[in-house]
Amino acid sequence: MMEKLKPSKISFAVFWVLLFVTCCQPVQAKVKMPSLFADGMVLQRDAEIPVWGWASPGEELSVFFHERMYRTQADSAGNWKILMQQEKAGGPFSMDVQGESSRHVIDDIYVGDVWLCSGQSNMEFWMDRIKSKYADEIANSENPNIRQFKVEKDYDFQSPHTDVNSEGWKKATPSNVFGFSAVAWFFAKSLYEKYEVPIGLILSSWGGTPVEAWMSRDALADFPSHLATAEKWMDDSLLSETIRKDQQVRDRWYAESVEKDQGLADKNLPWYSQQVEFKNWTKQNFPGYWEKADEDFSGVIWLKKEFELSTDQSSQSAFLSLGCIVGINECYLNGVKIGTTYGHYVPSEYQVPQGLLQAGRNIITLRITDNGRRGGLIPDKPYYMAIDGDTLTMAGEWLEKIGTSLPSLAWGTDFSDVPTGLYNAMIAPLLPYRIKGTIWYQGESNSGNAEEYRTTFPTMIQDWRKKWGQGDFPFLFVQLASYLATKDQPEQSNWAELREAQAMTLALPNTGMACAIDIGEWNDVHPKNKKDVGKRLALAAQKVAYGETELVASGPQFQSMEIKGKRVLLNFNLFGSQLVCSGKELNGFAIAGKDGQFKRAKAEIKGSQVVVWNDEIKNPVAVRYAWADNPDTANLFNPEGLPAIPFRTDK
């Protein structure tokens, strides 16, 4: 049962008498609490604090926190819950939960602001993946007032869980921060620097997942196709059999990739050996994609790169960066394996042990297992070896040879994508926990159906708010960054439409959006600049969650347009003192006449307006800005350095 009781202040002497009496009661089930209630936890300040758990049916319990005692009794199912009174920011505190036969003590508790951090891979993206870019920030990350609780990945299509799996709360330290969400870390760091209040981050995220996987069954009621998919996988026998068969297919494919690999056939002379002859190997320049294998290739490809070192260079330790490589790459240097990297979204970076390099000829060998994506070494990534201040490029001529070709791997069902599965396992157990708000980075996996996202995303937000029972708590999200190759002419863009759906969600109360259109990477769906993303989310938080209503927290947002002859005058909610261009001339605009065919346009800032035109279009009807997968030339900003939000005037 849940009781909202007026706590009583008691002395420590009285508390220990009660503890002694309680410990003398007959043995019953141990008091248990959710994994969130663990050493190092952060509780939400300035609000009633729910505390809950499980015990024997009817068991009486006491909760002692900050010199106050709360009492309750477990219901007939063994569930119990109390509401502790509001607390100011501070700590460290301890919580002592006492049942009739057992005790649960939690230490090092801080009271501050708790933020749920959710979405897909750009939220999950951990600091370790950008340790080279943010080496100084990591080295200076020690802050016991910032803590992260990471929810382990899980799904369930039957019913909501009551708890999550986790390694518990981790303080921000130079070693722990490698496992922090990069966006969440920079967000928390900015807020702490501003308010000096402890920040708790609950990271519940899974890469590559669509919004419907994070929606409750109730929220799916208006989306019958998603609801039907969720109900299909409620069949346990179908689920378990599908998982078993899919795993068999994967296991067999990877087994064959080893068994049939000619590069491993000769145990005495594998292709990573320095003694391998290169006569039948093909020369190819990298970075780039496979030359001898078409886009449907899958199997194993070997690459070799020779380079020369001086005697002084060979005596040093070194750092090797091989950009991003599609598939699984095993890296050998002079016949010795120095590491393995899984997936083309993870930088292939290796520390070379001292003594492994040689004066004169050295050889890097890569064994790359590609299960069917377009394979290769992704262009415009860093390929080099750093040795004692010198940098040797690893771009250029490599030698290539196919170890084996296999049919493309059929992956089967990705259950992390199935509607409501992640909500049940990774969100529902968190619902009783008091939070300040949510930061969200997701949308890439829904870019193929942006129109539906206009309703699924706000529906999810509203449903979470309803189920949390905290009213319209702040919900802040990141608009998708630029991605994919640039185009010469304006055209339809799924990514632009998804960004539009995100911007439309700002119609919900207490929402904020961090625009990231200027910090994407054409060849990586995970842009490395997570610092600016976190800081922009923190700006949105300052305005939406912390009441700084006059703060400039967004770039210019389109408001209205006027057509005057051949020119279109655009009006903006400035979100700053003025409009500015970050380059020599304003770019990123397109204009269309009555035929609806958009052409690139000229534009210039005139006071608080932008004037757009194309001399070939005499009767313009619509304008678009940054309307592309990757509008890399778009450069309308405000003086605070925040980019204008992409838009279109047509629908």
From TrEMBL:
Positions of the Sialate O-acetylesterase domain: 112-218, 420-541
Keywords for this protein: Hydrolase
Molecular function terms, GO-annotated: sialate O-acetylesterase activity
GO biological process, one term: carbohydrate metabolic process
PANTHER family for the chain: SIALATE O-ACETYLESTERASE
The name this protein goes by in its record: Sialate O-acetylesterase
